């Protein structure tokens, strides 16, 4: 399922539609509206959350995030514009139909999640299905499965007060998962948790998302959280979305001074990933590459060997300096069949901070692989130091 937000506005106060007209024409600013007793909470929001994507809306307090998410789940009607959930325009639907879409397609996880104190963890996790009138057997089965997914198996018969804050939030997540909806709306879902637990929850969400591929709209005021979990991030300021992009897009090409200022607080070595600093082509060979050129490249980069790829960009092996010299001495025009030496590898999304140790143990660079095990590129010690040097200078 997907969510599409199209020219969405919400103005609070008298005569909101007329205020939207003036905003559209550029005839008034949000500040001027405020003097008239009106608040432009969301101004011309446009974005598309793709199926299976984690899309984060990030902004400071008052930037309009809650208003936006409440329009997406149909609790609040827009002043203008449209919200489509899986192609259905919920902004023009009857309240009853909106409720149906919400029940069938969307689940919510909030910051202060109201668990029912006199009900067990299992019943709490099953609650979302209960309000959807599902049969008891199905409710309990799904609730058990989703509790297991969030690591709470064995806790089914406990009561909320016996759980830590992090565990309670997991029950909230389990409740949302148990409903089986494709779309999950998460409003500051981890913001009330201690930093360590919060990180654990983020990891858990990333892990779940790798197998479940829900369509997630996640609201946060924490930039590092946005950068960690968002496939893409929308930066919001004073009701407007000022930039949409991946963490790396936004970090390396902030659209406005405001965004650039924000980026100064980002823990870059944890946010920037291996794929960003991987050298994509220069350090890569094919079996028909020229051995003399291969030797020059190795020497120029201080590498003991280069990766050889097959036609699908999968790592076929490795050519060392000695291999290339032998090929050259034998007068061969191609490096030929590589040796099957195992090369250290890293996943494309490994944070830079985690590349230092494996790189210190090799003089060949790290092969960076995408989820299909295809080579993204090679990270060398020099490239990493460069990136870290730039980031610490910028930070
Ligand atoms: N029902 C309302 N009536 C009038 N103004 C409102 C209403 N709801 C929100 N606002 C105003 O709209 C603006 C955006 O608020 P919103 O709660 O959406 O921001 P937010 O980014 O979610 O902030 P926070 O993180 O503090 O919740 C604020 O100026 C707020 O005061």
Automatic annotation (TrEMBL):
InterPro entries tied to this protein: AAA+_ATPase, ABC_osmolyte_uptake_ATP-bind, ABC_transporter-like_ATP-bd, ABC_transporter-like_CS, CBS_dom, CBS_dom_sf, Gly-betaine_transp_ATP-bd, P-loop_NTPase
Enzyme superclass (EC): hydrolase
Enzyme Commission identifier(s): 3.6.3.32
GO molecular-function terms, A-Z: ATP binding; ATP hydrolysis activity
Keyword Metal-binding recorded: no
Entry superkingdom: Bacteria
GO biological process, one term: response to osmotic stress
UniProt xrefs under SMART domains: AAA, CBS
NCBIfam families assigned: proV
Protein name per its UniProtKB record: Glycine betaine/proline ABC transporter
Organism: Saccharopolyspora erythraea (strain ATCC 11635 / DSM 40517 / JCM 4748 / NBRC 13426 / NCIMB 8594 / NRRL 2338)
């Amino acid at each position: 399922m997907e969510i599409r937000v199209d020219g969405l506005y919400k103005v609070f106060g008298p005569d909101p539609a007329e205020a939207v007209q003036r905003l559209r024409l550029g005839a008034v600013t949000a500040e001027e509206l405020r003097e008239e007793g009106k608040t432009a909470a969301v101004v011309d929001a446009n974005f598309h959350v793709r199926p299976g994507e984690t899309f984060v809306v990030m902004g400071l307090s008052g930037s309009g995030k809650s208003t936006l998410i409440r329009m997406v789940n149909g609790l609040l009607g827009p002043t203008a514009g449209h919200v489509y959930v899986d192609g259905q325009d919920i902004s023009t639907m009857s309240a009853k139909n909106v409720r149906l879409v919400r029940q069938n397609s969307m689940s919510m996880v909030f910051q202060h999640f109201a668990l029912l104190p006199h009900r067990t963890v299992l019943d709490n996790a099953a609650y979302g299905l209960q309000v959807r009138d599902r049969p008891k057997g199905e409710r309990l089965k799904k609730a058990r499965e989703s509790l297991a997914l969030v690591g709470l198996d064995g806790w089914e018969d406990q009561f909320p007060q016996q759980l830590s804050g992090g565990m309670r939030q997991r029950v909230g997540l389990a409740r949302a998962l148990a409903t089986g909806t494709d779309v999950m709306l998460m409003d500051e879902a981890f913001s009330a948790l201690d930093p360590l637990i919060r990180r654990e929850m983020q990891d858990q969400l990333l892990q779940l998302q790798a197998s479940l591929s829900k369509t997630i709209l996640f609201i946060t005021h924490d930039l590092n959280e946005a950068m960690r979990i968002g496939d893409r991030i929308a930066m919001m300021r004073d009701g407007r979305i000022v930039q949409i992009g991946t963490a790396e897009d936004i970090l390396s090409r902030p659209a406005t001074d405001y965004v650039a200022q924000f980026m100064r607080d980002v823990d870059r070595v944890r946010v920037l990933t291996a794929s960003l600093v991987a050298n994509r082509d220069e350090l890569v060979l094919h079996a028909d590459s020229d051995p003399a050129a291969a030797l020059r490249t190795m020497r120029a980069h201080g590498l003991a060997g280069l990766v050889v790829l097959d036609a699908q960009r999968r790592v076929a092996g490795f050519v060392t300096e000695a291999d290339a010299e032998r090929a050259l001495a034998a007068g061969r025009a191609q490096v030929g069949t590589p040796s099957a030496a195992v090369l250290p590898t890293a996943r494309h999304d490994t944070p830079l901070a985690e590349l230092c140790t494996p790189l210190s143990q090799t003089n060949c660079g790290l092969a960076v692989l995408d989820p299909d095990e295809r080579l993204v590129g090679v990270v060398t010690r020099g490239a990493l130091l460069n990136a870290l040097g730039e980031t610490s200078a910028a930070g």
